[in-house]
Amino acid sequence: MEHADLRALIRPVVIGLKDGYTHDELPDFCRRLGLPQPSPKEEGTKANRLKASFDALPDPDLIAVADRLLQQETMSTSTRRTIEDVLWAEEESAEVSQRIRREIARDLDLDDLIQHPGRFMALLEKFWLPEDDPFGLWISGPRRGLRGEIEQHVLRNPDDWSTEELFERLGIFDAPHPRFARFLETLVSAELIPDEALQRRLVTVIDPHLRTAGMELCETGIADGYPAFALVPAGLAHNRRPKNLIFASTRKPDLRFRNAVDNDIEIVGDQDHVLVYDRTIGPDGVRWQDLQDWWKENQEISEDEEAKRTLYERLRKSLPDNSRAQHNLYVLYHRIFGTAVPGLPALLPEVWLHWDPKTVQQRGREALLRFRMDFLLLMPRGQRVVLEVDGSQHFTNRTKYADDMRADRELKLSGYEVFRFGTEELENKWEARDILTPFFTDLFHRFDVTTHDR
């Protein structure tokens, strides 16, 4: 995406919001959007103040401002969808052909989709329906236009149209891939169908078609008590929610399998040197706020600030004393994003265990100890990112290098993304900041993580 194109797209949107705010309210408006502070009100009109503020916005911050616009401000449906499609086009998305889309539509029963008419129409409003009915303002009686046709031929007379006919009229077969992917995920969500059995039945109808494109709907967590599904490459579809998350160990933990079939793990000996996160992991992954809430309850802490401070220090304490690079990565992650950190994936250090879909009999008991990670991020939609910081011995020691490469392969085959940093890159804090800032910004954009301040 060219920054100039995105800037040209959202500039008039920002300036057009001027009428909703007074001169005195513009500074707070700019702060919420992440724009530079406007000039004093004595120095121009609201439009000119907003123009100057927006034009001073650095290119790397455009995406974050566009995200905040979508979440915080009201705009026309056509403008909103144009901005969404531009932003979503940058993400890695499943490419589902028109043929596969039609085959999915032919197998979907409209009666399953319209069990809750209000939810069904809200879903169509969210992704497909046009902004307004050009005839409805002047013609009395039943609503005309596409909305009226859907109410007539789908809701009141469900046998009139097939699912394929509906999708055709909505333009779903020709829609950009990222929009279709999000629509499909919502189609099997509790947002449309608060019925777990029906959700799973729809997934079993859709998945055989998606597999021909190398994709599947994978259960990635729980949302409001119902399963949440994400469209992922078929290789990731076997990812399960982490059953045991053992991390922040100040020394090598003594682990053993209580139940080898179910991978039930217990920690032998002193458990104060390791943390075990045992809460359900939802579709947003594990954010810092989730971790802080768990820590606050687990440690019986009454104040949020104390929970935040003590958790930060407990995780930092687990880092190796002889690795300045790992300390810099951990500290800078929190400094770079500041007040946005609570909504971001928690940077989990010294992770000793994750959910492995294979049992101990298949892996072998030694596999348990090979899968230590310097840092793990459990991202939205069941995505997992491992960060490793390698010293020179990782490259000069042939055995160590071979072990690293084997571990990378096994992690990637288990559905993890692995990124390695050299120690020399991160030992100087100022140089490390210049490396980590664009890295995490690009990483979050790729994995659909917003970085809004809280």
Quickly list its features.
alpha+beta, four-stranded mixed sheet, 48% helix
Quickly describe the structure:
This protein has 21 helices and 10 strands. The protein has 454 residues and is an alpha+beta fold.
Strand order of the largest sheet: 7-8-9-10
The overall average pLDDT, rounded, is 83
Number of domains: 3
In whole angstroms, the N-to-C terminal distance is 27 Å
What ranges have pLDDT less than 50 throughout 5 or more consecutive residues?
134-143, 257-263, 354-369
Q: Biggest sheet, in brief?
A: 4 strands, mixed
General form:
globular
Residues in helix, %? 40-55%
Radius of gyration: 25 Å
Which structural class best describes the helix and strand composition?
A: alpha+beta
Query: Helical segment tally?
Result: 21
DSSP summary, beta strand count: 10
Strand content: 5-15%
Question: What does this protein look like?
Answer:
- The chain has helices spanning 3-16, 26-33, 46-55, 62-72, 77-88, 98-107, 110-113, 117-127, 145-156, 163-170, 177-187, 196-211, 288-298, 304-317, 324-337, 360-363, 367-370, 393-396, 398-413, 423-426, 429-446; strands at residues 215-223, 226-233, 245-247, 254-259, 264-268, 275-277, 348-351, 373-378, 384-390, 416-422.
- It is globular.
- Helix 1 runs antiparallel to helix 5.
- It contains 21 helices and 10 strands.
- By secondary structure, the chain is α+β, with helices and mostly antiparallel strands.
- It folds into 3 domains: 3-88; 98-236, no CATH class; 245-446, no CATH class.
- The two termini are 27 Å apart.
